[in-house]
Amino acid sequence: YNGEMNIAQRGTTSGSGAGGGYDSIDRWESASASGGAYTSEQVTDAPDGYKYSYKRTITTANATTTGTEYLTFRQRLEGQDMQHLKYGTASALTTTLSFWVKSNKTGTYTVSVENEDTSIFNGRTYTINSAGTWEYKTLTFVGQKTEESKAGPSNDIGPGIELQWWLKAGANFTSGTLVENTWQSTGNKRVSASNVNVADTVSNYWQITGVQWEIGSQATPFEHRSYNDELTLCKRYFEKMVVDNYPMFPAGNNGVNSETRIPFKVEKRAAPTVTKSGNLNLTLNGSTSTNTDHNLGSAT
In 3-state terms, what secondary structure has residue 59? Predict the structure, then answer.
């Protein structure tokens, strides 16, 4: 979802710290433990054929890479949408991940495909060769067959597969030896010991766009969806609405107060958490919230 980073319903810039969270770019999430602080942006610096990229810039450095420390960029995909990959069986399919990447930090990076339901993962490395230059990467992943007797992702709406780009990783992830393109569950073999620490200096940055994951051993040209199609897909997980786009009707207090019903345009993945901004009372399933500053309609 949103592989060319063109949907940003939450806004084009956000700040993040320990723990991370959903970024300014729809469907993309930060995960962090002692990874310093950073900004996440939708920017117009992009390779030919793309309008936007995601950019993470370090604002508070953390140079250590010990223990449980990490900094990642990831997307989680519903288990029910991953069943065609046949993971957990002898017929599991090979896939290829392609993307454009740019950073001032050259060196080795790790990206992994992870089955969240059974805690098994397949890691590959890529290299950023030239600082400040867009580079195109393709990585092929063998399918998760019957390794370690682990099943494939569950057939449900929960996170089944996670694609994760590692920008920093401590010893809990790197002290073993990463065996590339091999499914395993030993946590300290998850990331290359040579993985770059993007968080080690203020103003370091990392950018990505044109992300595509597909069946087969060869990358194909990027599928550019229409803006409306991409927005509709993203609204399954998050939808921001403006109340004054909807008619208001008198309600109670002799018409002094007013009310409106705001329908979601797209059915959500799960029962949403609804939050709001502005001076209004918001009722969801009979529970009223007053004067809280948030966006409407998250079901991430």
Answer: strand
What's the rounded Cα separation, in Å, for the pair 53 and 61? 23
Sheet holding 95-103, edge to edge: 13-16, 37-43, 53-60, 205-215, 95-103, 135-141
Could you tell me the two tokens for 274?
């609804």
Strand-pair partners of 70: 33, 169
As a whole number of angstroms, the distance between CA 76 and CA 116 comes to: 9
Q: How far apart are CA 275 and CA 273, in angstroms?
A: 7
Token representation of residue 75: 């997307």
pLDDT tens column, 51-81: 999 999 999 999 988 899 999 999 999 999 9
Helix (H, G, I), strand (E, B) or coil at 150: coil
Q: How far apart are CA 245 and CA 182, in angstroms?
A: 51
Taking the C-alpha atoms of residue 270 and residue 263, their distance in angstroms, rounded to an integer, is 15
Distance CA 209, CA 1 (A): 12
Phi, psi (rounded to 5 degrees) for 115 = -90, 105
- For residue 51 the two structure tokens come to 């309008």
Instruction: Write the pLDDT tens digit of every residue in 261-298.
Output: 777 889 899 888 877 776 666 655 544 444 333 333 44
**Cβ neighbours of residue 169 closer than 8 Å, sequence gap 6 or more:** 65, 69, 70, 71, 110, 190, 191, 195
Amino acid at 99: F
Q: How far apart are CA 171 and CA 187, in angstroms?
A: 10
- For residues 210-237, one letter each, b for 16 or more C-beta atoms within 10 angstroms of the residue's C-beta and e for the rest, the string is bbbbeeeeebeebeebeeeebbebbbbb
